Amino acid sequence: MQKIRSGTLAALLLGSISTPSSLLAAPSSVETIRVTALADTVAMDFTEGLTTEVGPRPAGTPQEARARDWAVAKLKSLGFSNVRVEPYTMPVWLRGRDEARVISPFPQNLVLAALGNSASTPEKGIDGEVVYFPTLADLEAAPEASLKGKIVFVSHAMHATQDGSSYGTFGATRRQGPSIASKKGAIAILIRSIGTDNHRQPHTGVQMWADGVKPIPAAALSVPDAEQLARMVARGQPVRLHLTLTSKMLKDQPSGNVVAEIPGGDPKAGVVVAACHLDSWDQGTGAIDDGAGCGIVAAAALQAAKGGPLRRTILILMAGAEEVGGNGGRAYYDAHGREPHAMAMESDFGADRVWRVDFKLPQNHDALARRIIAGLAPLGIGASRLPAGGGSDIEPLVKAGVPVVDLQQDGTRYFDIHHTPDDTLDKIDPAQLQQNVAAWAVALFEIANAPESLGVN
Amino acid sequence: MQKIRSGTLAALLLGSISTPSSLLAAPSSVETIRVTALADTVAMDFTEGLTTEVGPRPAGTPQEARARDWAVAKLKSLGFSNVRVEPYTMPVWLRGRDEARVISPFPQNLVLAALGNSASTPEKGIDGEVVYFPTLADLEAAPEASLKGKIVFVSHAMHATQDGSSYGTFGATRRQGPSIASKKGAIAILIRSIGTDNHRQPHTGVQMWADGVKPIPAAALSVPDAEQLARMVARGQPVRLHLTLTSKMLKDQPSGNVVAEIPGGDPKAGVVVAACHLDSWDQGTGAIDDGAGCGIVAAAALQAAKGGPLRRTILILMAGAEEVGGNGGRAYYDAHGREPHAMAMESDFGADRVWRVDFKLPQNHDALARRIIAGLAPLGIGASRLPAGGGSDIEPLVKAGVPVVDLQQDGTRYFDIHHTPDDTLDKIDPAQLQQNVAAWAVALFEIANAPESLGVN
After folding, report:
1. Which residues does residue A356 pair with via DSSP β-bridges, in sequence order?
2. What are the boundaries of the signal sequence (chains A, B) (predicted)?
3. Per residue in B1-41, pLDDT tens?
């Protein structure tokens, strides 16, 4: 990750230099865009439509194809140009039955959901004794081959964070736990959901098997079920489970990105990519992840363009197959990575308010950052000195050096809902969604019209 | 329901008479009981044990039988006397598969749970077009036979209330809706869950078919799913569903009450019944409904007895089969209704704090009410002038004229969880549970030791 540029912007953030008033007073057109965007209805309409009329849209499935058709029609009706699907193919993991039952000593069912790429049990399920690890580190410390024939159960102590950083730390249990358990001989692994709620809604999510590791059945218990199982284990008697996690893998299934544009007047200035993802996990309707993100970027591009013709093209990338490995983002980069890109941005962290802006800009672009900061301040958004990093849909662009601005959303309640059946429209607060649109509209307006030279290629 | 006695108590509540200070200063033994009970650990231990080691315990099932065995052992270990099971038999409805899928125009699954006594669909399910009614009154207004071949969907606008009164009003959709829909020719009925949350956790519950009505498949959609279906209907195209609700009815299954006592010194003074129910719905572990109630009454009886021998016997009634129609309460009354009962009380409204006390006492027992009010006031509990009504486990006793005191619990979040998979231990706040124990201990102490003559028979 590129180092944050030092100099005047950092000093400005620290308040150690005086700021010309012209930089803090947003131009009236930005103010108009911001105020107008705060009354936006497109983002909610988009999110309501996608989640109601398509609903769940797992990567590489017919539902995702319906989402592409839906989005193409919607974006055309909203007036976007060059609306198209850019197809690719991919392997697809499909959930089957997810069932768990404590056989002894306290017979009862547990609620869980298989993780992406889980191996399937036989139809009749498997039995095994539970071996409990309070943390991933405890699992890592177990001797090699010590878990032969066992069902591993790993917990953790994730709590909510505004910046979502606890997902990075505790999500390792989902990302790495299955491969570690398999290497040590386990016949299956259950993890406490990577979530911060206390509802019986398991948090699924993808995990990739490490090279050479044999896939085993892998699932997340809902948080209350994980606590229940931990209480049983704590009583000291052997706990035996019956586990049925049927799933299947399909090769070469169709997926694709939906791309739409608001053309700018200066093609050589590079496009501004505003990304989200169209696919969702299979159990919810993908409202906060990431229907809202697609609603935000589409609405904000339209709001930004209300100020008149833009210098740069805003390109809406509604990526496919983000949840299972970022296939859509890679396909976009493979097709377009060598074209001029001025900036890449992504909205994929729910629908709660933007609270902070992070930058990764070329050297000597502090003036642009200052204009964006000034435009966002009336929305209650502060600036950080942390480098922007983008998200998985724009990761290949970011790695190639395209500048990034991150409009960081409040993640305090994001992991209550993330990847669960509970990811539904009712979780979206319309006023916070509108604040997102306003923040994005301001940023896109400033970036698309920036007189500075930006980007790569 | 007996009219509330007027006179001095009512005047006291209105503050219109002066109160002898001796009545407001609780005796030191009550204060000791209250303070000690606020540190109670028995109620949480009981609730944790029952919900973990037995888990779900539907009426008339082997799991309920395990709950009786568990409770007998626990109550004996706590030092109760005359601990026994009083068996009876009953018909049992058993849930099968609960599945719903929108066939058109927006194919996707919906989350729902069959209601108690629902008819079963064939294994392969049924198809039908949805007819939507925003309220039960709208369904009632539909012409006879107008719903032939249709799947009825009824919504409502229930919101949380502290006293739970919205359940009475809006619960009619669950209690009466299925019979009304069947009479008008519907092939199935779906209702919006009688709940105040927005999670994908359907609220089940019992409903009884009216005389002569043909049972049809009947289920509750989770609140987000009900809102999703309403949005689909609002788009104006016919909405078709595929519905699979398999269930079965069994005759003459064993159930029973668990009864335990703390013997008092004066058998002729009548027993004080402290009731709860041991059964739960099948999807959760019955923590707030009603494991906590059983923990509260057991713990409180022990706390009340810490003050020394009691005049009256406290009888703990852990009723079976409350959820499906109050079978346990009736069986208790059939066996014991003619024995002397001084008072009946019940804890069956979750584990949140007691906020109000209601009375239904014989005439001229204001002094007892005043002692109870004084003992509860330091716990933040106010007195009402509403008549106490008890709950279904003591309903036959109350109808027979046994006096009642209701320690009303805060129901603001009760119907977020009630009858859902989410009814699990983590929903219980230990401090509020302890406040319940303290309130109950104070009331039981005052009632069991009251020098007044109380009760019937």
Report:
1. A382, A408
2. 1-25
3. 233 333 344 444 444 444 444 444 444 699 999 999 999 99
Active site residue A322: yes
The size of chain B, in residues, is 457
Q: Please indicate if any CB of chain B lies within 8 Å of the CB of A237.
A: no
For tokens 């739409």, the residue is: A260
Which residue in chain B has the smallest CA separation from A424?
A: B224
A271 with A401, same domain: the answer is yes
Does residue A2 belong to any structural domain of this protein?
A: no
Would residue A247 count as lying in a domain? no
Question: How far is Cα B223 from Cα B230, in angstroms, rounded to an integer?
Answer: 10
Please check whether residue A246 lies inside any domain of the structure. Answer: no
CB contact under 8 A, A231 and B199: no
Q: Tell me the sheet residues that pair with B275.
A: B317, B346
pLDDT in tens, A289-346: 999 999 999 999 999 999 799 999 999 999 999 999 999 999 999 999 999 999 999 9
**Which residues constitute the domain of residue B195?**
106-238
The last residue of a domain, from among A238, A270, A288? A238
Instruction: Determine the residue among A108, A110, A222, A416 to mutate to test chain B binding: the one whose Cβ has the most chain B Cβ atoms within 10 Å.
Output: A108
A369 shares contact with chain B (CB less than 8 Å):
no
Are B267 and B222 members of one domain? no
Do residue A426 and residue B54 have CB atoms under 8 angstroms apart? no
Residue A244 resides in a domain: no
CATH code of B290's domain: 3.40.630.10
ipTM score of the complex? 0.92
Q: What is the Cα–Cα distance from B395 to B393, expressed in whole angstroms?
A: 6
Please report, for the domain that includes residue B110, its CATH number: 3.50.30.30
Does B227 contact A at CB distance below 8 Å? yes
Distance (Å, whole) CA B86 – CA B100: 40
Q: For residue A189, how many other CB atoms are within 10 A of its CB?
A: 30
Q: Left, alpha or beta for A319 (phi > 0: left; psi -120 to 50: alpha)?
A: beta
DSSP label of A2: P
B43 touches chain A (CB under 8 A): no
Of the candidates A109, A198, A201, which has its C-beta nearest B200's C-beta?
Answer: A201
Mutate to test the interface with A, among B52, B53, B69, B104 (most CBs of A within 10 A): B52
